[in-house]
Write a structure and sequence with these properties.
Helix content is about 30%, strand content about 0%. It is mainly alpha-helical. A hairpin with a 5-residue loop joins β1 and β2. The longest helix has 15 residues. The chain starts with a helix and ends in a 9-residue tail after the last helix. It binds heme C (2 copies). One heme C (HEC) binds next to α14.
Length: about 450
């Protein structure tokens, strides 16, 4: 398949230049987005609140501007793509790269679960003693090859370049890492994940690893003489491995077979797709793209950023501090938009491929079944008491995972556009149909 080959090549060459035709973002959604940005009134209140939490200082930040020369680094030897991928695979599965000796990338991103979490924990445990909790749910690493580097002003290249569609792209729930090599620094160095003190600590572990000689063969005998250079070799290998098509974008779901004309949806799945696409019903496809665009199979995300008002999850230990808020795009883990209150509460739309294999959903792992997620989508505002605890006035405290000043950022378009007393956008039977359809997005379909 040509699209996949070219995507792979693109990844290997390293996103030196992102081809505009591979961008699959959706204009209508971002136009809506833009209106929200323009109409938002900036408020500093939320930012004072997030400033308080210690985790901010503890989480390595990444600088989106620091990726420019990454692929131009001189190594003694130019590594081949297969050698990079093979090394990346070894690194990815090596628990020896963590301070605890017990945590590999694959511990949280399990290949048996579409490189998502292997368990139902809301946040995973890590750190030197494996007792420190994370702050966000683990995303699947599949179908990220189409994510472009973060941009605050996305312009779709379809002859209408003048329309600013707002923030899109980047890695992590808040888009703060521009590439997977930049992203890999976060888990390697985070005190509550693999907990290495610095790049040199990671390199010291690789130097001792069984595969150290393979690194020397690929990059040159003196690779480990320079910690900074060796660390970049590690990041590059991890990145190239994460672009292996068979592992990370196999397009092997039933839905892909349907797109190829090799399978048919059942009646229930087909109804589910209809509700998924229908702007007056689920309207899901306005953000979770479901059709082939410019030759590319859909990622079931446009990688735009939105605030859905997901309830606060008391199971996240950091949330015990009432002054702590994870606000996504406006911080605290990304730091370039701390003063942009109109961005608070917005998280990057995840791909829904393999979503049926997950056991926790949304950035804060608030829900534990697709049934709950779908019920939330259609009754968030019509039955708020079902989702939010009551405040002092006895009324449900809507959007309680956001400081009051930025609650106006939440999405109010379909399926969130029903008023109290109106029927939800999807009935219980229709929700079952959508869930049946989402099941067709799981890789490894055997006709
Ligand atoms: C302790 C669990 C844990 C470990 C270990 C871990 N990750 Fe993650 N990973 C996460 C979480 C949680 C996120 C979401 C972080 C955020 O949004 O701030 C994430 C996000 C990512 C992303 C971004 C995905 C996206 O949707 O943009 C990539 C890529 C990634 N991890 C790769 C790795 C690699 C490579 C390693 C090993 C070097 C690794 N991870 C180790 C938990 C983990
Ligand atoms: C306006 C854009 C938008 C629409 C419409 C939308 N979503 Fe989402 N979806 C998102 C965003 C953004 C998130 C992540 C929110 C967060 O974690 O705070 C998300 C998360 C999800 C998740 C959790 C995935 C995971 O990995 O945790 C599921 C499941 C989901 N959406 C399904 C749907 C379905 C089904 C519909 C239609 C009923 C729908 N979405 C409509 C933007 C949208």
């Amino acid at each position: 398949m040509r699209v996949m080959e070219s995507m792979h090549l693109k990844g290997v060459i390293g996103r030196l230049k992102e081809s505009s035709s591979e961008r699959v973002l959706r204009k209508s959604f971002f136009n809506r987005h833009k209106a929200v940005i323009v109409s938002s009134v900036a408020s500093m209140c939320a930012l004072m609140m997030i400033g308080a939490h210690a985790a901010i200082a503890a989480t390595p930040s990444v600088s989106p501007a620091s990726t420019g020369s990454f692929y131009a680094q001189p190594f003694e030897k130019q590594p081949t793509v297969p050698s990079l991928s093979a090394l990346g695979r070894k690194l990815f599965f090596d628990a020896g790269l963590s301070a605890s000796g017990r945590l590999a990338c694959a511990s949280c991103h399990d290949p048996a679960h579409a490189y998502g979490p292997p368990n139902a924990l809301v946040v995973q445990l890590g750190g030197a003693d494996m007792k420190l909790p994370g702050v966000r749910a683990v995303p699947s690493l599949r179908y990220l090859q189409a994510v472009q580097p973060f941009t605050e002003h996305f312009h779709e290249d379809d002859g209408d370049d003048g329309v600013d569609q707002g923030p899109a792209g980047g890695h992590d729930w808040d888009g703060r890492a521009d590439s997977t090599h930049e992203q890999a620094k976060v888990p390697l160095l985070s005190p509550f994940e693999m907990a290495n003190a610095d790049a040199a600590a990671v390199v010291a572990k690789v130097r001792r690893a069984a595969y150290a000689d393979e690194f020397r063969n690929a990059f040159g005998a003196h690779l480990f003489d320079d910690d900074a250079r060796a660390f970049n070799a590690v990041l590059w290998a991890l990145e190239v491995f994460q672009q292996e098509p068979a592992e990370f974008y196999p397009y092997s779901s039933k839905y892909d077979a349907v797109l190829r004309g090799k399978a048919k949806l059942t009646e229930q799945e087909a109804r589910g797709l209809q509700w998924f696409n229908d702007p007056r019903k689920g309207n899901c496809a306005s953000c979770h793209i479901s059709t082939i665009r410019q030759g590319a199979f859909p990622a079931f995300s446009d990688f735009g950023f939105l605030a859905l008002g997901v309830p606060r999850n008391p199971a996240i230990p950091a949330n015990r501090d009432p002054n702590y808020f994870d606000l996504g795009l406006c911080g605290p883990y990304r730091t370039d938009f701390l003063d942009r209150s109109e961005y608070c509460g917005r998280f990057r739309t995840p791909s829904l491929r393999n979503v049926a294999t997950r056991r926790v959903f949304f950035h804060n792992g608030m829900f534990t079944s697709l049934e709950q997620v779908l019920q939330f989508y259609v009754t968030r505002d019509t039955q708020a008491a079902k989702w939010y605890p009551r405040g002092r006035d006895g009324q449900p405290e809507r959007y309680n995972d956001l400081p009051a000043a930025v609650r106006g950022n939440v999405e109010v378009g379909a399926p969130y556009d029903r008023k109290a007393g109106q029927a939800p956008a999807l009935s219980d039977a229709e929700i079952r149909d959508v869930i049946a359809f989402l099941g067709t997005l799981t890789d490894g379909y055997q006709p």
